[in-house]
């Protein structure tokens, strides 16, 4: 198991010190674990798996995949691949936390006829239609957040350009 802990650290490109900090232990603890000089407690294993999304089965036995793909980590991976901003990642995570029936109802009411008047007459299956509707919704939401951020930035720039009246 000690070598698998080291493999986790290396796959995350973390130094022993940084790896330890994220786990709440010092570099020395990580060194001793990696060199098989310390007993690994079950609580430490559980914590390591929680912090880094590591499969406990893999860590204990070497079977399966090193990392557990959670919904949040899948979204993070997707956002990384598409160079999405932190705000875009948060929007996607929030969107998928909404109950699917509520999402579908909201999308159909909010975007109702958006795809009904397609110029081509090819049939679109329900999955493709739902995907297109969800993508359009996400794009619309991103545009709203983008505008809000631009207004916030402009407001911050204006307030920083005002003279400091405290010293007058």
Poorly predicted runs are: 119-124
- Could you tell me the strand content as a percent range? under 5%
The helix count comes to 9
| SSE order | HHHHHHHHH
Mean pLDDT: 78
Coarse structural class: mainly alpha
Radius of gyration over C-alpha positions, nearest whole angstrom: 24 Å
> Major beta sheet, specifics?
none
- Total beta-strand segments: 0
Percent range of helical residues: 55-70%
Task: State the end-to-end distance.
Answer: 66 Å
- Which assembly state applies to the chains in this document? single chain
Described by the principal axes of the CA atoms, the overall outline is: elongated
Give the topology.
Layout lengths: L1 H10 L4 H8 L3 H8 L7 H11 L3 H6 L9 H11 L4 H12 L2 H12 L14 H36 L7
Short descriptors:
mainly alpha
Tell me what the structure shows.
- The chain has helices at residues 2-11, 16-23, 27-34, 42-52, 56-61, 71-81, 86-97, 100-111, 126-161.
- It is mainly α and 168 residues long.
- It is elongated.
In short:
The chain has helices spanning 2-11, 16-23, 27-34, 42-52, 56-61, 71-81, 86-97, 100-111, 126-161. By secondary structure, the protein is mainly alpha-helical.
